[in-house]
Amino acid sequence: MNKKIALITGASRGIGASISLKLAEDGYKIWANYRSNHKAAEELKAKIEANGGECILLPFDVSSPEETERVLMPLLEKEVPEVLVNNAGIMKESLLIWMSDKDWQDVIDVTLKGYFNVTRRVLFFMLQKKRGVIVNISSTAGQSGLPGMGSYSAAKAGLIGASKSLALEVAGKGIRVNVVAPGFIETEMTSNLPLNEIINKIPMKRIGKPEEVASVVSFLCSPAASYITGQVIAVNGGIYV
């Protein structure tokens, strides 16, 4: 039998890589999207295959409708993912007063336009199959806001709203849509933050691990979560409740 497929965007590093490894462990064939870090993507593929899994690498910029169409459509016409995880996102820190037009737009484009570009195409085929699970990776910043991260907070909050709307649109058609909102997680994205100060504000007194986010995504993709849709699951150590 053919393996079920999980498409993960922004899969080459950090949370995306952990989600890819976990879903491969769960038995999914992984379609791993990334933009430009070929070395990290090849390392992910090697890890998945070393554990007996399958992985194909899909290098394209999710913010580009043309690239998304060119890479995804030939695959979707042959096979349909059971799972889509929209994880691609970038962060550019700046107070709003100093933020450039380009920096604002880049963050919005990767997170929100990327979600739209990928989901719209995959959803068309999921609807034909009348099944599917979509998990969108937001952030505590999208729930509470963070100073200096206006564009990132706006993009991640927008992803929550878009997810809730889509969940209502497709709930009766065999497709579930949920959000995972990580807090401060040990990744390259948080490596330059003052973690010692941040830890003091986290009730659990530690930074989270990418694997802890991946395990929640795994649950939401499983039959055990078959009656859960339109929800935001926080993985943040209690920093926002």
Itemize the secondary structure elements and their pairings:
Blueprint: E1 5-8, H1 14-25, E2 29-34, H2 38-50, E3 55-59, H3 65-76, E4 83-86, H4 101-129, E5 132-137, H5 140-144, H6 150-170, E6 175-182, H7 195-201, H8 210-221, E7 232-235
Parallel strand pairs: 1-2, 1-4, 2-3, 4-5, 5-6, 6-7
Helix pairs in contact: 1-8, 3-4, 4-6
Average pLDDT, to the nearest integer? 96
> Which sequence of SSEs, written as H and E, runs from N to C?
EHEHEHEHEHHEHHE
Q: Strand content of the residues, in percent?
A: 15-25%
Gyration radius from CA atoms, angstroms: 17 Å
Instruction: Quickly give the structural class.
Output: alpha/beta
Distance between the termini: 43 Å
Helix content: 40-55%
Describe this structure in words.
The protein is α/β, with parallel strands linked by helices and 241 residues long. Helix content is 46%, strand content 15%. A seven-stranded parallel beta sheet has the order 3-2-1-4-5-6-7, sandwiched between helices. Strand 1 (5-8), helix 1 (14-25) and strand 2 form a beta-alpha-beta unit. The mean pLDDT is 96.
